[in-house]
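Hi there, hope your week has been kind to you so far. Do you reckon you could talk me through the fold, stretch by stretch? Thanks so much in advance, here it is.
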Amino acid sequence: MTTTTRPFAVVTGASSGIGYELAKCCAQEGFDLLIAADLPEIEDAAHTLRGMGVDVQALKVDLASTEGVDRLVSAAGERPVDYLLANAGHGLGDAFLDQDFDAVRHVVDTNITGTIYLIQKIGRDMRNRNEGRILITGSIAGFMPGSFQAVYNGTKAFIDSFSFALRDELKDTDITVTCLMPGPTDTEFFERAEMEDTSVGAGKKDDPGMVARVGFKAMMNGDGDVVAGWKNKIQTTLANITPSSILAAQHRKMAEPGSAE
């Protein structure tokens, strides 16, 4: 990668959706990029982003494995990472007992294991330099028990909690940690999770560009967390005072297969 004085950002899950839009926000600010995803479309994303006048390196890699994360870190070379946007994640619909466990484990390993391993690898270098910004894509799903999406919601509950804890651990440094918590967003998420016949999958969703801009601005401001969309803000506020049994029943109406009207 060409050495320049431009800031350098690593963005995961950047082949489409929120991740691509986050990478676009970085490019618009003049950041060089290392983008990664587990789909070949990451090369198309890189081609488009290069047209914005920044250096872009693309890597097709499965970030559910520590080996995949090591490949990503190695691709950054010796260049210090100024911004880490840890966005890679997968969903999985249907009842837990009916899910294939390999698919379950891949969601857990992508959303949790690979994410926190990447953050630790790059975060340690940031701590050594005492500078850097980390944006972690959590979800409002982490605020509620996810009937028919139990594993995904559980992973996002972990990520939401983890981001706040890491931020506190780094409060005496010049490193910031921001958690972006979107609601349902118009991406390939629901198709890949096989949730297109659900109420939430078929319903109206937020624009990924809007979500990314909200998260990027929060990261640049050094904010601890941000919920994208006023309806989602109301939902998270209510979730904090609603019994878990009621939240689970409400989620069933959104995510149960065949619930789409």
Summary: The mean pLDDT is 93. The longest strand covers residues 175-181.
